[in-house]
Structure formats: C-alpha cells, structure tokens
User: Fold these one by one.
Assistant:
Number 1:
Amino acid sequence: MEETTIVMYPAPSIGHIISMVELAKLLIHHHQHFSITILLTTGFMDHPSIDSYINRVSSSHPSITFHRLPTVAVNHTTTQSIAATAFQFIKSNAVNIETKLRQIIQTSVIKAFIIDLFCTSAMETASAMQIPVYYFFTSGAAVLSLYSYFPKIHSLTKSSFKDMVGVEISAPGNMALNAALMPEPVLDRDDPAYWEMLYFCEHLSKAKGIVVNTFRELEVVAVKVVEDGACFPDVEGSSPPVYCIGPLIADAQQPDEARGIKDCLSWLDKQPSKSVVYLCFGSRGSFSMTQLKEIAEGLERSGHRFLWVVKRPVQEHLGTKKVYDTTGEFDLSSILPSGFIERTKERGLVVRSWAPQVEVLSRESIGGFVSHCGWNSVLEGVVAGVPMIAWPLYAEQHVNRNVMVEDMKVAVAVEQRAGDMFVSGEEVEKRVRELMDSEKGREIRERSLKFKDMARDALGEFGSSTKALANLVQTWNVISH
Ligand SMILES: O=c1ccn([C@@H]2O[C@H](COP(=O)(O)OP(=O)(O)O[C@H]3O[C@H](CO)[C@@H](O)[C@H](O)[C@H]3O)[C@@H](O)[C@H]2O)c(=O)[nH]1
C-alpha cells in the first residue's frame, strides 16, 4: 500500500511556523497513520535557531519530516514594505514547491496540502496536480472573517485605508474598525502587498477547508460567522468547511535564541504569586529608543515587579517600515534610561531579545502580560489564564486587540497616539496599575481563568477542537485519490 502523507507549507516567520508544527504534532498524536512533510523556505526571515528547532522536533517526532527548500535570493529595498518583500520571496519559491510536490507524489498519496494564507501562490500548482488544498489560518476566527470579507470591502472602497480618516470598516463577526487600523499589508493600495493580499483572500473560498487556530468557546460570534459562510458574501454555493482546532501553542521545543535565557525562570520562581508583569512584543516587536524610555519610566513609576523582553531598537529613520532583523548583539544599558536597571534591580528583570515565553507565562509569579496581540501570544496568555494589556503594533494586531478587549474581555488596552501609535510613560503606568490593582483588573483576571479552563477542555477527549480535528481527518479518510 502507498504511504499516505500530509504536506504543510508555513509562511517564513517563526510565529507562523511554530503553530503549523504544533498542528503536525497534534495530527500525529491523534491519528498516527499519516506521515507529515513540512516545507520550509530558506533565506528570508530565517530564525537564528530554526535548524536546532527542526532537529529537536524531527528527533522527537520521527513521522514529521522537514524539507528546506533551496535558498532563494531576496530583493528588499527600504522603500518596499516587509510584507511585499515577504510575498515576493514566497512566490519565488513556487518552482521549488512544484518540484517537491512532484517528487512526493511519486511515492506517496498526498491527502492534504495545508498552506498558510501567505503561501496562496502554491494553491494553483497543487490543484493542477489534483492535490486537495487546505488553509491553516494562524490568526483567529475574527481575522479570518475580515480577510474572507476583504474582497467585498475592496469592491466597495476606492482609496487606501490609510487615507480614509474617520471611516470605520465593518465585517461580519468583527466590531467596526478604524480604516487606518486595518491589517498592515492592506493599508496602502500603492503597496504591491495590498494586491497580493486581495489575491490571497479571494482564494480562501476556493480551499477544500480552512483549519483555524482558535476554539469555538473563545470566539463564539466570529466562529459562527466563518462556519455559516456569512463572511463569504460573493461565493456561489457552499463556503469551505471551517475547523477550529486550537488553541495550538508552542511547547518547550520552541526555538531558544539567547544563551542564559532560562535565568529569567529562576528569577520568576523567587517572586511572589501573581506579582510580575511580563512585557514581550513577539518575534519582531521592537521600539524606538524614545518609546523604550517611556516604557521604562512607566514601569518604574508603577511600582510593580516586571520581566521585560527588549529587542534591538528600530532605527528611527526607518519610520514605520520596521526592520525585521531585531536579533543580534546590543548593550541593554546603552538603550535604557541611565540608572534604570540599577534602580529597579530588586523588582525588575530586563532580558535581551528573547524569553522562553510559554514557560514564562506558566509561572505562578506572573500576574499580567503586556502583549503586542500577535495571535500566538494571545493564545499563550489565554492558555495560561494570564490577564493582558493589549498593545498592538502591526499586522492584524489591532483586530486581535478588539477581540481580546471587547469580546473575550481578557485585556485592557493601552491608549496609542493617532498616527505614530506612541504610548506615553504615564499611560504605561496607568494600565499596569489598572490591571494589577483595580476591581476591573480583578474581573479580567477571573475571566482569564475561566478561559484557561475552556481552552483545556476544548482540547480534551470530548472537546470541541478534538471533535473538529477528527472531522477533518474523517474527510481525508473518505477522499479517494
Ligand atoms: O521573546 C520571545 C518572543 C516571542 N516568543 C514566541 O514567539 C511567538 C510569537 O508569535 P506571535 O505572538 O503570534 O507574534 P509574531 O511573531 O509577531 O507573529 C506574527 O504571526 C502571528 C500569527 O499569524 C500574527 O498574529 C502576528 O500579528 C504576526 O506578527 C510566540 O509563540 C511566542 O511565545 C518567545 O517565545 N519569546
């Protein structure tokens, strides 16, 4: 009998790779009869520890094989958005993807080719080979609804969202969003990324199914909208089935970047219960020196304990086109206010570049999480039952902010200055105190703990996500190839 396999193709960003790898592990855990091949691009946004991460996953899960595609050159100019460069890079891998798929079908039956939204360029190639294509959506159901509805919004608007001052955008299952806060790649019609995103979003309805890293109980309204197809207004016939199989979060095998980062865990273990505010802004969330200074002042004035992950600052002249390489050596004391580390050393710890976030959030001493609202971080906060302070930076994070603050009610939001999104030190102090000291903070904490239980139950034997995964696998078992 021919081997049956699932092929996965994540976008080249660690926030996208980790959750797809977790999907692979979950499939193997519940349904051992598949092997899984994960195709990874090489040469752009490569995480410094990606090779050791791959080795660790492959040795603990022999049914999961990684295939690094040959290196493809990247042509990034400072006038081009990072999203446009990333999409161009992914497209340049199309030939490599085709070659690899052809090679795999020589010996195996591909039951499903599961791609990231940003890897839509691979859909036509696979469909032409009669390989069923599914999306794995690495953000939540609200964003899936917004993106599915985006072609409709596009047809009703003429200007770039960034220029639509005071206009609110509505999509099913989403609260109205200021046009200027729409996801970063669709802000500007002059950016090639806008047109690529339109192409991607038009293809969502063409997939055999959409697997989403969320769970029904977390996003009740948005899940209903994506399931009943209300977010696909122009699709004739039925919209693709949606499988909410989350929350999938990284385990201890995630990439560790810096040596010595585990020291922060022993520091956390010495702090009182629920006393520490953890600040971390994802894999590429870095700030200007001016903004870092305000955060430091706000933390100092709040009087609370903190663990703060600081990335290499962005160079201010690059403006909003943030550098994506925020790793590498730099001196913390030279970028933080003079004497800050010394003055706060009894109650604060600043970590350079990277902390083992999932482990950090599971520590008893963590009392709050200041997050950039990257969806993996949101889910990790939910799974740990930690109340959050929402500080969106880029991508679809403003949508996630609304979900966290208004729907899930597990976070308070920082107030950001219109235009440059600057947050003052007073605002940092105010929100930290609100979360840690106020009645509202106490209510949010209680709610977060309820979601923690719901997240665990969703993945339990009879949970909604376990059932959704079984339904998905069932469709593969009946597809004759
Ligand atoms: O010091 C750090 C920083 C990050 N992480 C981990 O890295 C991942 C970061 O993922 P996420 O929180 O989703 O942020 P991004 O890396 O910014 O993710 C991108 O991808 C997400 C999923 O599509 C989107 O929601 C985001 O907006 C987009 O920026 C998480 O697992 C974190 O635990 C650490 O372990 N330590």
Number 2:
Amino acid sequence: MTLRLQMLGTGGAFAKKYFNNNGLLYAEDYTLLIDCGITAPLALHTLGKPLDEIDAILITHIHGDHVGGLEEFAFRMKYGFGKKPVLYIADKLVRPLWENTLKGGLSQDGIIDSLDDAFEVRLLTEGQIERVSPGLSVEIIQTPHIPGRASYSLYFNGEIFYSADKTFQPELLTRLVRERNCRKILHEVQLTGPGEVHTTLQELLSLPPEIQTKILLMHYGDEMESFIGKTGEMDFLRQHEIYTL
Ligand SMILES: O=c1ccn([C@@H]2O[C@@H]3COP(=O)(O)O[C@H]3[C@H]2O)c(=O)[nH]1
Ligand SMILES: [Zn+2]
Ligand SMILES: [Zn+2]
C-alpha cells in the first residue's frame, strides 16, 4: 500500500514561519492526523481541510505542539458535526493527557467527564501492531525525549519510520534499516544549539549515507532555509506538499 504524507506544519515547538510538526497520512481514502498541536486547527483551515475528513488522530506525546489543538478539535467535532473523533493513543499517555492537559478545558459535568467522553479512544501498546485501516498499520516505539515522560515514535506498514520528538538513537535507526525493511525515515531535527531533548543535525550527519538517503527532516526552526545544502544526503520535508512515501 502506497502511503502519502502531507505535513500540516514542519516547525519546531517555537517556530513562527512554520506550523507545528503535525502530519496528514493518507492511505487510499483513509486519513490519519499525526499529532494535533496548537496550530493544527489553523493549518487545517489554511489547507481547506474540514475536520470531519479526518478519520482518526494519533498522538506521539503531550507537548503543546503535538496535542494543543485537541480541545478545539473535540469541541468542534461534537458541537459542529455531532461526532466523537477517533483518538489513537499509547495506554501510558491516557492519564496524563486527560488529567494534565485536557480536563480543565474539556470537562462538563455529566457530559464530558473522561477522555472517552470526548474521543473514541483506541489504545496502542508497545510491541503490538495495530491495524488502523485496511491499508494502514502502526506500531508505537517508545523513544527518549523528556526524562521520565513517555513519547512514542511510529512505524507504519512495517517500512516507514516517523520519529516523535526524540534524542539521537543511531542503533534504532540502523536496526530498522538493516533488520526491519525500513524504506523511509521522517525525522525531527534541531539545527542549532545543543540537542538535549532533540536530535541535532550534527548527530544525524554522523549516520552512514545508506541511512541518510532515507531521511526527510522535520520539526525544524525558522532558520531552516540557511541550512539548505548543508544536510548531507538528507532533505527537508516541506509543509503542505504531498509526498508519496
Ligand atoms: O528539557 C527541555 C524541555 C523542553 N525544551 C523545549 O521545550 C519544547 C517543548 O516542545 P518540543 O519537545 O517540541 O521542544 C521542546 C524544547 O524546545 C527544552 O529545550 N529542554
Ligand atoms: Zn515538538
Ligand atoms: Zn516534545
């Protein structure tokens, strides 16, 4: 099954020239929204994409640039379309997403008292492959980001790796390419400064060319244009363009 990817945005958390790093993944007529950050509603509006054309949302972790648009998404689906959005989420993220992020804004006594009242929740467990649609499967892979906080990268159809925000994990990338048929890697990048909770361009440039050629860079800062031609065998993913993966 050929997948297509259209990023709503390719910016890092504080980018202002680019929307948040959220993507629409198309598998034939099925549309999965990967992360729904603060700017997702505006990015969808800019693309002319109605919310009810999205079949499900999957979230990687609970930073604002990945979940900050969920409150608006849920309210507009409920009161505008009379529907509950399908939400794929790692079991370990349910409690923090509801208790620490959404409860304050979304809860209404007797109407919305839990995440299940606002979303059609489908739980994901590490190591288990979930069939999302006839042409789309996903496996979540926990990858380090903020110490003590869970964050999950995604492996689609056993061949496409989509990194969550994460630190550099060369062994994982090497294993996916050499042992698990990985054809394409959508990877976050931090262009300047120390990585700390992200993967730096310098780190990615240390990968062998056979892996770099598979990588498209995303989640970058406003300085991206000045790095064109300085990314080895890797290219930048551009927001709103449709890529066949
Ligand atoms: O220890 C920390 C924790 C966070 N941060 C910043 O906050 C941002 C939160 O969203 P993000 O994960 O896309 O990017 C993160 C970084 O830009 C940081 O620099 N160091
Ligand atoms: Zn982020
Ligand atoms: Zn993050």
